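Before going further, learn to read the protein records used in this course. The integers have meaning only within a learned vocabulary of local backbone shapes. The record below shows the convention in full.
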Amino acid sequence: MKRIIYANPTAQKIYDNYFKRVNKCIRILSETDKKDILMELNSHVYEATTAIQPDREVDVLVDILQKLGDPEDVLQPLVAYKKSQQAGYSFNPMHILQALYLNVSRGIGHLILALGYIVIISFGSLTVFKLISPSHTGLFFKNGHWFAFGYISRLPGGLTESLGDWFIVVVLIIAAIFYFLNTYLLRFMKKE
């Protein structure tokens, strides 16, 4: 983005301050998305302030920036949307967490996604429990019937753990499948 230079120092200060706020709002986005947003906003400001007299720069600039709105309010939905798109394609857990955080107020779909990722983390933690306490973690049967899957602090008598060390492999496969399904769901939700 090419910075606009104003003859009036007050106008320059207003312009620079506005774009500092914009940069702060979009800092978590990819460089491409940041550049696109900055160029779009800058082009609106440029078109509105081109060919005006220096004594009118402040008035016209303040007017156009008020029409564009406060960056913190106007850019939040766009940043949330762009971050969700990035998360849906990158599968990066940090991008996913940022997208969920930004979209928490945007509907029940994101709540379901958040719960899905919590379940995935829970499955992943079972592998640690299996390593720390192998006799209390697994797929348990009692008298030939399914009794429990996961960690049991108090083991009643007559339980048989059927997966052994394969429990870790099974849990990781289930977590990976849910991770990719949940992330694809996030991607499709953003195609609205």
